[in-house]
Structure prediction request, 545 residues.
Amino acid sequence: MKKIIYCIAFLGAILIGCNPNEDIYNDLDAQDNPIIGEANITLTDEDYEEIGIADNFFETIDDAEELIPDFLSGLYPQWGNGSSVLVGYELEFGSDLEEVMEYANATVYQLGLADYAATGEQGSAFYPSLDADDFLPEILDAAIDMPEDGDIVLARYDQFFETPEVGLANIYQASFPTNYDNFENIDVLGDQGWTAGSANAQGSGFNGGAFPNEDWLISPEIDLTGETALKFQINQEIDLFGAPEESIDIIVSTNYATGTDPTAATWVTFTFDKSIYGSLTLSEDFDFSAFDGETIHIAFKYTSTDMTSARWRVESFAIKTIGVEGDVDNKGAYYEYDGSSWEALEKVYYLSKSDYDAMGEDSGRPGRFNNFSSSIDPENYIPRFLSSTAPYNFAQEEDELVVIYKFFNGSTVTRGNSYSVINGVWSPDKTELQFGNDGNKWVPDNTIRYAFTDADIAFVSSEFETKYEGPADNVGFFGSFDRRINSGNYWNDDMLLEAIGAVLDNINPGAADGQKYVVTLVVYTGVTEPENKAVIKKAGEWIYQ
Prediction:
């Protein structure tokens, strides 16, 4: 409730007014005993809008610590020193747990045709009867140069749902960022251009504004000798942002040589509809037969101006011909290098295409685009998924699992969270920050709220029996601290601080400097009631905040 005060005084013909809000806050600042409140909240979409966050999540913990305090000042204007609020919020990577972020940011290796060929079968995926874990350690050992002990890799691969039939099969494929370093990045103009993202290659001329650029991302030489009836397929996202379609071109050359000037070669523009790729979208199988039997290079040519800058994200592309084909599941598995070999990690799970589909394929469900978003909350689906999916439906109390998933927030990123079995139910780890009021503002806070127990009362009575005989005996007998000033058993603030410090040193002897507590005591003022005292440890001593 907003309080409005009108101050009017008449002096002759002069009308004098006062600032009501200033008076309110001056009064609050002057209070000797401000309200000490405690709350536990979770930020809503409306709260993020109030804070000024458009995506309903913070990019970093530092951002949350910087922006939430002003929001709390407006939410609890009358709360003062010693107040605390536990705030649940969303991070870009889903959790601030170090292990979750380590998995979300792990190096990605996308299996290619040569990797699947190691199984002795034809095709661009593992056959359904094969266990990928039987092959992935050796594949990673051959693919990852000079791994170090503790390195973690996400191996992404495809697996046929059923034994494949004769049809289209990949004869060349590339995925980003895995194959990014195999491509030439030719910078013709500008300082921006092609970069390797966490899940794609991105072309952009934006850096706080649009800048002129011309950049080519050129494939290695692709030998299509003897191949016929070729097809081309690409998984990409195109955001023109007002730029002309000619800003983005897929071009093909039969006379370019790696390492030479691309502008000196002949390039043929590959025509396709660029308006349908507003989000990461897998294209149809385009006719590519014009290049049957040729040796080619494929280039992704990006241009921008000082007026417009499109954004082009390429996740993968493939050239296909007649071979074996079938529907595949897109899967992933995490491996850690132990100094001699790659070992599968069992405490982390990467959601597959079929997992998203199992959560619903209709509009507004994860299986629609195989990701989550601000409107498709992973916490509404993943706990139920784990509870109904083997082997996780047989998990025991306090079992833990990190789940990594795709999240759309304008582009598709990798996020995750940790889940635990609590009271027989899979529950997500909550991303929370505690804030405390220091008398002037809200700050990130480590405050522990603690209420004296019967054991603490007995400890105080015994510990101070000699120093404060009457008050100590009185505490031991009645279980409360006498706060009546004229009483012979009066506990003043200094005495209370001594008692609080003794109890905290007894229950938490290792408390570090900077640790805060809000301690609740039972006091007697003529009636028995609780009283809160906020303390902090400084230079090894407990003092009032």
Observations:
- The first helix runs from residue 20 to 30.
- DSSP finds eleven helices and 33 strands in the chain.
- The first strand starts at residue 9 and ends at 11.
- The radius of gyration is 32 Å.
